[in-house]
């Protein structure tokens, strides 16, 4: 899976796995797990990529269907 390619340690892989599970659980709750276009979903953010905003970015990925990439960029810039 492409999300794991950016992981540089076991800890990052565990973190990424947990984030992906949360995303899938949230999609299942919303009834979009099997209809979501996973190719356009923004990859979860690792702590080292954005130490200040990673949690907010990952929450946005869990909660939104469209336009996540643009909003993630706004969070990182601001």
How would you describe what is shown here?
- This protein is mainly α.
- The chain has one domain.
- Helices cover 58% and strands 0% of the residues.
- Helix 2 (10-30) packs parallel to helix 3 (54-63) and helix 3 (54-63) runs antiparallel to helix 4.
- The N and C termini lie far apart (29 Å).
Sequence-ordered SSE layout with sheet pairings:
Elements lengths: L1 H4 L4 H21 L23 H10 L4 H10 L1
Helix pairs in contact: 2-3, 3-4
Features:
78 residues, globular, 0% strand, single chain, mainly alpha
Write a short abstract of this structure:
By secondary structure, the protein is mostly helical. It has four helices and no strands. It has one domain.
> So what's the overall shape?
globular
Give the termini distance in whole angstroms. 29 Å
Q: How many structural domains in the coordinates? A: 1
Structural class comes to: mainly alpha
Q: In sequence order, what are the helices and strands, one letter per element?
A: HHHH
Helix content: 55-70%
Number of strands: 0
Spans where pLDDT lies below 50 across 5 or more residues:
none
How many helical elements? Answer: 4
Radius of gyration: 12 Å
Instruction: Please report which band the strand proportion falls in: under 5%, 5-15%, 15-25%, 25-35%, 35-45% or over 45%.
Output: under 5%
- What's the main sheet like? none
The average pLDDT is: 83
